[in-house]
Structures are given as C-alpha cells and as structure tokens.
Amino acid sequence: MVNIINENNYNLINSADGDTNLMRRLEAMLPSDHRAGLELGLSSGGSVYLVGGIVRDLVLGRANLDLDFVSLTPAIELARQLLPRFAQQFGTEAVKLTEHSAFGTARLEVGDKLHLDFATARREIYAHPAALPTVTFPATLQEDMGRRDFTINALALSPSGDLYDPFGGLQDLRAGILRVLHPRSFIDDPTRMIRGVRFAARFDFSFEAHTAKWLEEARVGGYFGLLSAERKRNELRLILKEIHPAKGLALLEKYKLLTALHPFLEWDEQLAATFPRTSQADISAANNLAILLHKLGAARAEQVVNDLRFAGIEGEIPIAVARLWETVRPQLQANLKNSQLYNLLHEYNFPALLVFELLLDEPERKIVGHYRDEVAGRKPLLTGDDLIRLGQKPGPPFCQLLADLREAVLDGEIAGREAEETFLRQQIAQKLPQK
User: Fold this and answer.
1) CA dihedral defined by 414, 417, 422, 426, rounded to 10 degrees?
2) Measuring CA to CA, how many Å separate 393 from each of 313, 348, 383, 388, 390?
3) Number of H helices and number of E strands within the chain?
C-alpha cells in the first residue's frame, strides 16, 4: 500500500511498495551516466526536487531521461556549486554550464549525451491571454507545482524518494484523467490545448469533464488564434514527433483544433490509414508533416509550411512530397524507360522520395524503389571534359549532348567508354552544323 500523509499542505506519498520505492525504481530505469547525474543533482538535500515528465513517467513505468530539477534556493548558484563535482565525475572538457539569469535557470551539459536542467521555484503571471508569462521567484514548491499545465505533471520527487503531489496528480494518473489546475488554464496558455491532446493520445487518457468544458470554451472564444505562428508550429511539431502521431492528429480533429492550427489542415479515414503503414519506418517530424500535407497539393502545402514558419528540411520535404503526389504519381507507369523515370524524379532528394515511396501502393512503390536503387546512381563514364576534348564548347547544344548520352546509358543502349564516345561523335555529326 502507498501511504498518504498530509504535511505542509502537501500530500506526502511515501513511495515504499514492498521492497521497492520510486527512487530505486528510477535508478534501475536510468543508464549509468544518468544515474550519476541524478545523484549529483539531488545531492544538495531537501531543497532540490526532481520534477516534470520523468516523475510522471516513473509512476507510469515509462522510460524518460529528462532530468529536470526545481530548487527552493537560487538554481544558478546551485548549478555553480555542482559544476566542480560534475567536472570531476565526467571530465572538465565534457561539462558545460549555461545560465539564464532572467529566468533563474541553469543547465549542466555533459557532451551531447546528458543534460540536467535546474530552475528556481517560481510563480507565473499572465498579463493577458496567450501572453508569455512573467516569472517571479523564489516561490514554494506548491506554488511552483501550481503553475503547471495538468495535475499529472505537477509531481515532484524528493531526494529521499517521497512523491509530493499537491493537486491529486497520482490519483489522476491511476484514473487516466487529464485535469488542469484552474479554470483559466487554457486561456492563459492556449498551447495547453494541444499539449493536452498530445498527452491524451500518448497515454490513452481522457479529459476530466470540467477540463473538457474549459478547453471547448477557450477554443470557441478564439484564444488559440492569439498564439504566434511559431508557438503553433512548435506544438504541432511535438505531436508529429510522437511515436503514434495519427492518434494525436485524430484527437486534434475531434476537438476542432486541427483547423485552429491552420485552416488548410484536414483529417479523414484514408489519411489516418496512411500513418499506421509508416509507423515502423524511421519517421521524423518533417516526414510526418509531409504525410499530413501530401494530399493538399503543392501550393497549399507550401502555404501551410510558410504560415507556420517551418524552415529547413521541415519545410522542404513536405512541399516536395506534395508536388510528387500531385504531379509525378499520376505519371508512374510500369512501362517507363529508365530515362523517363529519371526525368520524372531526379530533381527530388532522397528524403522526400523515401516518404513519397511509403505513401504509394505496391506497384508504384516498386517503380520508385527501382529508380532509387538502380537508376539514380547510374551515369555515363564520359563527362563534359570529354565533350570539350571532342571539340565542343559549353552551351545549350553541349548540355543536350550530355543529356542524350545519359538517356542512352540509362536505357542500356550503350555501355563502356568506347561506345559512349562513338555515340557522342555520331550525335555531333547528326545534330550539329559542320563548319
């Protein structure tokens, strides 16, 4: 049995359960470097608590490596005090300290494999709906827990292994319920609507009745529209990075939040069936965005990408896949010559082609696979330098000769340097005026 003791307005939950407790269970789940980081992070005693998703997931028995700490004393001073011990543990060259004095936070990084985040316990004040909060500190642990999004994330683990649960998060975890901490939660921070959907999809949880009512009121009130494009993008990206993004996207549609993210976004059973087929592949947020947008057409996909400020590969792949689906897919036929297939696909990079291939039915998928495996890397042995050696100067006819040579090689009409040079000499004699 788990004993619940009321202490200083908290529910102090002694995590002893037979021969195990939460701290021992956590240590058993962590890799060795993370165990060492956890021990050092909590080594200051009762003023530091492990918080956030790692505590929630510990209770659920899920793996999580995010070591986030709240300190009742200034976090930056704490991190500075811990820095020499981290350097001794992991090596001076490997450890980096980053401080953000305005937010009272610090991060200790050990290479790219481990990081610990320390935050001074704080209160948050929202000047107006959807505003970024004004942070004040210090605060009590309960005040810090009270600024969080859902009760299941308002849990803290003490160095002794006791679970502080001021808002009934443990009970909600057991019941599979998402509950906000106050009625204005979605108005203060409308990103919590998407975050709630993400947690509901990940854990198969449902919204508590009042929480569902407040979410709908905030949505109808237009508060989600007050968010910047960047904040909308960030929340959509997190949905797309989930192991099963289709569940989150379906819930966004259910709660009418998909079109709140962008009016062009849509969801149907056919699109939903596409994601399970791709769930076993190495799919990134960029690829999942491409899957979500692929039926919109290139112009609309590009507008979604631009409006939500996706950039780099996250912007390039979805537009390319939408164009492939719209313009190339109808032309994929089994009797295409290699040169025709090359002309259709060569301008697209492999990341976009791999997503496109996953979306296709088996016959079309084989055609694209043949291009990727057999056609894309095949090229003539002769180059432009050889054409110059044959007396030709760069220009449009020069480029056409090289294109003709490539097509002949791709289609198996010629093979080898001698045959390629003979082909070029014949083309020059036939197509170019003689002096």
Assistant:
1) 70
2) 37, 29, 13, 6, 9
3) 22, 13
Judged on CB neighbours under 10 Å (0-12, 13-18, 19+), 295 is middle
364, two tokens:
């079309």
Estimate to the nearest angstrom the gap between the alpha carbon of 298 and the chain centroid.
22
Give the tens place of pLDDT for each residue, 70-98. 999 999 999 999 999 988 888 878 889 99
**Beta-carbon count within 10 A of 59 CB:** 20
CA–CA distance, 432 with 430 (Å, rounded to integer): 6
Alpha carbons 69 and 49: distance in angstroms, whole number? 5
Do residues 217 and 246 lie in contact, with contact meaning Cβ atoms separated by under 8 Å?
no
* Beta strand extents in 121-278 (DSSP E only): 123-125, 134-136, 156-157, 163-164, 177-178, 206-207
Question: Where do the DSSP E strands lie in 133-215?
Answer: 134-136, 156-157, 163-164, 177-178, 206-207
| CA pseudo-torsion sign 410, 412, 414, 415 | positive
Provide the pairing of β-strand 123-125 with 134-136. antiparallel
Taking a C-beta distance cutoff of 8 angstroms, is the pair 49, 141 a contact? yes
End-to-end CA distance of the chain: 99
Handedness of CA 129, 135, 136, 142 (dihedral sign): positive
Distance, CA of 331 to CA of 340 (rounded, Å): 10
Instruction: Give CA angle at 224 (221, 227), nearest 5°.
Output: 135
| The one-letter amino acid at 315 | G
Residues 89, 84: Cα–Cα separation, whole Å: 9
Per-residue DSSP letter, 193:
H
> Distance (Å, rounded) from C-alpha 320 to C-alpha 9?
56
> Which tens digit of pLDDT belongs to each residue from 144-197?
999 999 999 999 999 988 999 999 999 999 999 999 999 999 999 999 999 999
Distance (Å, whole) CA 231 – CA 131: 11
pTM of the model: 0.87
